[in-house]
Structures are given as structure tokens and as C-alpha cells.
Amino acid sequence: MLQALSVSGEPPDFCRGVAREHYLQVQRWLAQQTLQSLQARHEEAELLFRRVGITFAVYGDDDGTERTIPFDIVPRVFPEHEWVKLQQGLQQRVQALNLFLRDVYHEQKILKAGVIPPEQVLGNTQYRAAMTGVKVSLDIYAHIAGIDLVRANHGQQEGEFFVLEDNLRVPSGVSYMIENRKMMMRLFPDLFSAHRIAPVEHYPDLLLTALQQVSPPTQHYSNVVVLTPGMYNSAYFEHAFLAQQMGVELVEGQDMFVDDDDVVYLRTTQGPRRVDVIYRRVDDDFLDPETFRADSVLGPAGLMRAYRAGNVVICNAVGTGVADDKSIYPYVPEMIRFYLSEEPILNNVPTYLCRKPDELSYVLANLEQLVVKEVHGAGGYGMLIGPAATRAEIESFRQQLLARPDNYIAQPTLSLSTCPTFVDAGIAPRHIDLRPFVLSGKEVRMVPGGLTRVALKEGSLVVNSSQGGGTKDTWVLQSTGRGGR
């Protein structure tokens, strides 16, 4: 384990010990720093993030509606060969998930073959019957996927990456990936220039291309918009950031309307302008008051009519949530085998389905050792981390499990890998995960990097920003070509 940099400014053991080859230059750089200089850069980063407006909202927070996500100044580094394997595995997984979504809303071959129990899909709260038989452009449902990865820290799987979660509805965090890179280049140009780092700043260009590629056939330039719930949404900064970076309009539901020909238009000062592609950051239930929640004002009435008519493309597609539900997650390896006739490159974390009586019995007998999650939960809420829970918390969760076993899954508590992190005492190890972003258009593409999230509390395994987690810049080292500057 890494030891914290002492308040006297002595280098941490990390700087004196043995580092992996791709971390050697970071190790040497850290050995030359003092606690005071690192603290000054840390404070400068926080000030710059707040000035730029890089904040997120925490609902129910008594200290204020917005805060910055803590940014860690020590980068996470990947060697190129390691990243290549990850990329291949992520592209394979997203391809299979798109094939699954196309199948369950059309022929349902995987259900008829008995690979996945039909009730797990058709009875899922994220399954949208309104999407049955709807033809979507290029058969792509998940245009933007944020796949959460964790790395085992010991045992037979040490060093191996596992997929923890598939985020296919409205995955967030990519703006922090880009802004973290800008911050590192600004604060530490010497460290940055000492490495050949693959760039990530072209992500908005790749995103715009992917969105334009799925546009309906049109005689005019494809008009893409970003649909936001509004400025009080927790990820509003990201909505505005991506719209600005792509050079497209940021809109709310009231800014659009659907005419009698089932065509979506944007209200402008020059008159109505047709909308071809909507990159939506609004949940399914609020997209169209005609089809879903009648009290919603976040999407234009009639949007689903236009969608079914093929006059507009919604990204990600309505109904993608059924593929990233935690009760469907255990079946993704079988999806890969079923649709692609390939073995999964990336494995799932072993998962117990509490709806199965034998697996529920095991979970109930081993709650102190497991992580238990709600199948529809997110943001680190609705979960039990057995080793860190009190007896009262475990017993309370036991009752919840007995009352609604179908609402939970359980997984072993992985010894997650750690990364050197700047904390109050200096440099210390903290647990991390990784969310790369995978884009699907005419091809599946991604930038070499992602959002590394870090659990800043000592010993914590929860990396979510709403639970006190922070973020790091993620470096993929290049053996050839230009660096990231």
C-alpha cells in the first residue's frame, strides 16, 4: 500500500519504491514535489473549475444546490497495449447490447431461445412497449454508452478488468473527462510534456459525427440538438458543454413542437427549423406527454409520433434502459455468445440474482461479505456494502431482501485497485473505477481514455460524486504518433 506524503514534505514510499513501468515518470515527478506545491495546485484547480462553472447539483443537499467535483491532480496511466484490449472488449460489448435491444423490440429471438427469461425483459420497468416494432436508424439504440470498469487488486484475477455496470440511458461524465485533461495540461505542463499521451479533446467531434450518421434522410444539413431538462438538472453543465463543443443548439422541451405531419421543429427567431436528431438528456418517462407521463413539460407532445414515423432520431433510443438494468446485466456475456458467436473479452463481476431462491439463500447467509444493489438503483444509493455496514444496517437490508428479492442483485466485495491520490495528508492510495465512453454510428468508436472516478474517503469503495467521490485525468500512453498536447 502507498503511504501518505508526510507534512514535513518527505517523499512518500510510492516515490521511493517500485512502480510499474508506465508510472515511472510520474513517480520521479512526484518525488520532486512538496506537499505545499501540490496543495497550491490542488486549490488552483478547484478555483478554476468553479470559475468556469464546472459544477453538479446534489439534490437535497443542505449546503447548497451546486458543488465542484473534487479533482485529483495525480493522473491515472494506462500503457497502450492494455488500452487496446479494453477497447476491443468494450466495442464487443456495446455491439452485443445494441443487437439485444433491436431483438427484444422486434423478433425476441433471445427470449424464445430461453437464453434470458422473458419475464426479466418484458416485465422490466425499463421495457417500453411503445417501442415494439419501431424501426430505428441503422438499428442503433445505444449511441452513447458509458461502461463502468473495475480492476481486481489481488487473487487469481489480479490486474484483470471487470465490467461493473452498463450505462445506456443518459450516461454522464464525459465533460469532466475533457475538462480534467485541460486542467492537467494547464497546471502541470512539465509532467504532461514528459509523456506521449493520446488525446481525448476530439470527443465532441466524434459524438457529432455519430449523431449525424444516424440522421433521417434529409435534403438539408442534419440539424442536431441537445435536449436538457433545464438548468436545475444535476448534469446541466455537461449538457451545455457538449452543445457548445459540438456547435449545436441546447434546447428544452418547450422550444420544440411537432406538427400535423409528425415532424419536429425548433422555434427560432427566424421561424420554425426542422430537427433531425435529438441527443436527449431527459429520461424516457418525461420525453412525450402524449405517450408517457401526461404531466411532463420536459419534452414536446407528439415526439413519439415523429419518432415512429422515422422523421426524427432520439439518442439514446427510447427503451435502452432495459439493457442496462442490473437484473439484465448478468446475461450480457450470453448476449455476446448468442449474437456474435464470440467469447466475451471482458468479464462481468460474478453476480447473484436474488429472485432465484437458491441464490437468495446464499446472499442472506453472506450479507456481511457482499455488495447488494437495487436493480434500478444509481449514484451509489440503494445499496449495502456488507464489510462496511453495521449489524443494524445489515438486518434492515435483510428485511428488504425478504420483502422484494426480485428488486436486488448481489456481488462479492472486490478488492478494487488503487491509484496514488492527493489527499489532505499528501499522497495515499484510493480506490478507483473507470468509465470509458463508446460511440455507435456507422462504426463503433471511442477516444483513448475515460472518466476515472476515485473514492476519496480512506477505505471507501463508493466513487460516485454524489457520495463524495472525485475524478482524475486518465492517460493512455502512445508508443507512436503525437501526444496529447
TrEMBL record:
Region of interest (Disordered), ranges: 465-485
Entries under InterPro entries matching the protein: ATP-dep_Glu-Cys_Ligase-2, CP_ATPgrasp_2, UCP005522
Polar residues biased stretches: 476-485
Limits of the Circularly permuted ATP-grasp type domain: 75-455
Protein name as annotated: Circularly permuted type 2 ATP-grasp protein
Lineage: Bacteria, Pseudomonadati, Pseudomonadota, Betaproteobacteria, Burkholderiales
